[in-house]
Every structure is written in C-alpha cells, then in structure tokens.
Amino acid sequence: MEKKWIFLIAVLIFILYTFLFLRLGRRYYKKEYGTKMWNHWTTRLYNWQAVIFYSIALTILTMFLLKWTTVLTF
C-alpha cells in the first residue's frame, strides 16, 4: 500500500513539472523559433523531448530530496 502512495506522489510531481515547463517554456520557444517554424513537427518534438527529460530529472531530484528530509520513506 505504501508503494502505491509513493508512486502516486511521483506521478503527481512529474505532471506538475511537465505542466509548469510547458506553460513557462511555450512563449520562449515560440519566440525563439518563430511562429512558422513552431508549426513544424520536428520543433514540437524537440520541445516535448526537453519537457519529458527535465520533468523526469526534476522528479527524481525532488523524490530524493523528500527522502533525504525524511518526508517520504522508500
């Protein structure tokens, strides 16, 4: 039962970081690449790869930070 809660917390943290990165980064990437280039699938794929990579990295870092501060035990 405890592992389900830890997994649920990790998924929620991942979704939170993904949402924040998409919302905050969308303007930057659209401005950086331009509206015409933003409509190409390769540019959006690059954006999604960055979102997934950074979200995973920040989720792992957050989970170990929560473990280190003994908020979570796993």
How would you sum up this structure, described in words?
The protein has 74 residues and is mainly alpha-helical. The chain has one domain. It is built from 3 helices and no strands. It has helices spanning 2-33, 35-38, 41-68. α1 (2-33) runs antiparallel to α3 (41-68). The longest helix is centred in the N-terminal third of the chain and has 32 residues, at 2-33. It starts with a helix and ends in a 6-residue tail after the last helix.
Write down the domain tally.
1
Structural class: mainly alpha
Cα radius of gyration in angstroms: 16 Å
Helix content estimate: over 70%
Q: How many DSSP-defined strands? A: 0
- pLDDT below 50 for ≥5 consecutive residues: which ranges? none
N-to-C SSE series?
HHH
Short description:
Helices cover 86% and strands 0% of the residues. The chain has 3 helices and no strands.
Could you give the topology of this structure?
Elements: H1 2-33, H2 35-38, H3 41-68
What labels describe this entry?
74 residues; single chain; 3 helices; mainly alpha
